[in-house]
Amino acid sequence: MTAPAERGSAGPATARPASADALADVPADVLADVSDGTGKAGEATAGRLGAGAWTALVVVYVVWGSTYLAIRIAVETMPSFLSAAARFLTAGLLLVGFVAVRHGRAGLRVDLRQLGSAALVGLLLLTGGNGLVVLGETSVPSGLAALLVAAVPLWMVLLTAAGGERPKRAELAGVLLGLVGLAVLSAPAIGGSIAPAGVVAIICATLTWAFGSFASKRIPMPGNVFASSAYQMLAGGLGNLLIGLARGEERGLRPGDVSTRSWLALAFLVVFGSLVAFTAYAWLLRSAPLTLVATYAYVNPVVAVLLGWLVLAEPLTGPTLLGGAVVVAGVCLVVSVSRGSGRPSARRSARKAVREEAVQEAAREVTVREAGQESARR
């Protein structure tokens, strides 16, 4: 994230490439920490981000685990895609207002590439991903939906492999184990006790969500994480709205027919599911390893299954418990292997990014200081 150019008394100070003269004024300890190639700066940054990363993870763990229950309640009396559209358009507009008040227009300013990237990720995550989950939950219990979504990290491994990074044998074993779990979870649909279309919709949702998360790490996103989340929500909300209208969900829809608990569920989804948890997820995607972020996928199902059982009396069937356990075991294997060994190339890239950002920031401070001194002399 690049801070806006600061202004001196002589007018705007434009940033220029760090010159040898400018870097000569950078404190030696800063240069030592960011340019010695040992990774100390990266480790220090990781340490500083540790508490924030875990706080964000807990939010995603608990809040997103409860959103499956809220979605199931919302679609009791609301159409699927239109309820998703209302959720994300409302949350997106609220987040735009927050950014405008806190950071002014500069906080919302992005170039066309960044805007296009945010829109693409929003469509993948919130229209293809969340929208299909909402559609699936019209016929699939919330706990089962969460267990199916737990497969997201498995697709992450396959996408990483397609991107040229060879997965370890244990990761592939975890993927295979997870696929077996998905097959067990899908058995009720094959047997006819659960609508197959709902299960297929949710599995497709996991694929688009994984691809959106994967793409967000590799395309130019807006620097302000709140603005980025807002643009993603607006794009995803519009996508859901268009699909809902194309499906004719507005026909016969009357706000008076929507139950109070569905309205409350929608409000929960807007405030906590979108504004709080999705923003935390977007921040984690750029601030923490993807494999660590993916751990939410085996915590959310536990929360969702328990809430579905306690609040909606959803049955805990044998295939649900067995398949869910197998999926979670596969995801745990994938994530533990990835976190235990780390990705050397990713670590090097992170350290390089930290070093470059610190050097550029120090150079900008020197440039602004020089401009102020020159203005004072005049």
In short:
With 378 residues, this protein is an all-alpha fold. 76% of the residues lie in helices and 1% in strands.
What would you note in describing this structure?
With 378 residues, this protein is an all-alpha fold. 76% of the residues lie in helices and 1% in strands. It is built from 16 helices and two strands. The protein has a two-stranded antiparallel sheet. Strand 1 and strand 2 (11-12) form a beta hairpin. Helix 6 (112-136) packs antiparallel against helix 10. The radius of gyration is 23 Å and the shape is globular. Mean pLDDT is 77; it is low at 1-49 and 342-350.
**Number of extended strands:** 2
Summarize the main sheet: 2 strands, antiparallel
Q: Let me know the average pLDDT.
A: 77
**Spatial separation of the terminal alpha carbons:** 33 Å
Shape: globular
In percent, how helical is the residue content? over 70%
Helices and strands, in N-to-C order?
EEHHHHHHHHHHHHHHHH
Number of helices: 16
Rg (C-alpha, Å): 23 Å
The protein's oligomeric status is: single chain
Topology of this structure?
Elements (H helix, E strand, L loop, with lengths): L6 E2 L2 E2 L7 H5 L3 H8 L4 H35 L5 H24 L1 H4 L3 H25 L5 H8 L2 H11 L6 H23 L4 H21 L8 H22 L13 H28 L2 H4 L6 H12 L6 H24 L2 H34 L1
Antiparallel strand pairs: 1-2
Helix pairs in contact: 2-16, 3-7, 3-12, 3-14, 3-16, 4-6, 4-11, 4-12, 6-10, 6-11, 7-14, 7-15, 8-9, 8-10, 9-15, 11-12
